Amino acid sequence: MNKAYIVLLGIIFIPALLIVLNDNGINSNIEDNIEFKKKLSQYGLFQGKLSDLTPIAEAEQLEVSSALFTDYAEKQRILLLPQGGKMVALGSGLPDFPDGTIMAKTFFYVDTVRKPGAGKRIIETRLLIKHKSQWNAATYRWNERQDDAFLLTRGDTVAVTFWDEKRRNRKTAYKIPSRADCIACHRQGSGLFPIGPKLRNLNVQIDRGDKRVNQLDYLRQRGKLELKSLAAIDKMTDYKALSTPLDQRARAYLDINCAHCHSPGGIGGITQLDLRYETPVNETGILFKQAKIAGRITISGELHMPKIGTTVPHDEGIRLILDYIEQLDKKK
């Protein structure tokens, strides 16, 4: 695709997004109904040395089939339900979480290329807490000693050096999101919601002890999930699984990286794209906006998509979507 054409597409497409943004670039008129603690350690989510990220016995470590891309950072996902509380399945999408639920996602880098066994550098932990039927979001930056993380309100930037999936050494100014940034991605209509823990994305095999088990069945047996039929839950594809059909991988990638904005109720909904995995392809808008999608994901700088959460392009993800669009073109 001609570079000038790509840039032109970006210039045409960007005004639609700006309609819903304020002077800071984000529509953030959702107020928290809790007061976040100043330090991550005050939540008691981990036991032992905090930087070991060992969850307490009451918490569950979640695995997903397809993960949001964030500058090649690795992530740990922790779910802590209130005592006696459980998630209730509502089809294959997000379950209903009880009040008092805490979700923690920690972002870190591990230098296994130059210094095998050297440990990890933890950058941030993001919290979602449900209180009185409302989700509240906050970010915590880890200090240099890696012994705690501290509440941020305006976001921050951290210089990091890391190795990507092709073992290339890279550097970037990693951006920890502000509260407004959190709201932009997690907003659906007038409220905030989790993005990743849809049941179809949690419907994977995991290792627990010396057994390989289905994660949803494991959560059900642990009394953490009310689920009548595991067979009724769809499965979302792992977009990195090369043995899986290209269209399924691309749709999974678009779902986890784009659909939180480009769906009904999201801040990108005005673009008439509905990139949710469960939406039939002829209803997504993909078939009519292929060139615009290609343009937005390949542009670097202020016009690239997604606008929040990345500072370096996801080369493998871009290639996946471009291959998918090429496949669609051939079917016309």
Could you describe the 3D structure shown?
The protein has 2 domains: 1-22 and 237-332, no CATH class; 31-236, no CATH class. The chain has 8 helices and 14 strands. It has helices at residues 3-18, 179-186, 199-202, 215-221, 246-258, 281-284, 290-298, 315-331, and strands at residues 60-62, 74-80, 87-88, 102-110, 120-131, 134-142, 149-152, 156-163, 169-176, 187-188, 191-192, 205-208, 211-214, 225-226. The chain has a 6-stranded antiparallel beta sheet, covered by helices on one side. A two-stranded parallel sheet has the order 3-14. A hairpin with a 2-residue loop joins strand 5 and strand 6 (134-142). The two termini are 18 Å apart. Residues 1-27 have low confidence and may be disordered.
Please summarize what this structure is.
The chain is α+β, with helices and mostly antiparallel strands and 332 residues long. Helices cover 23% and strands 23% of the residues.
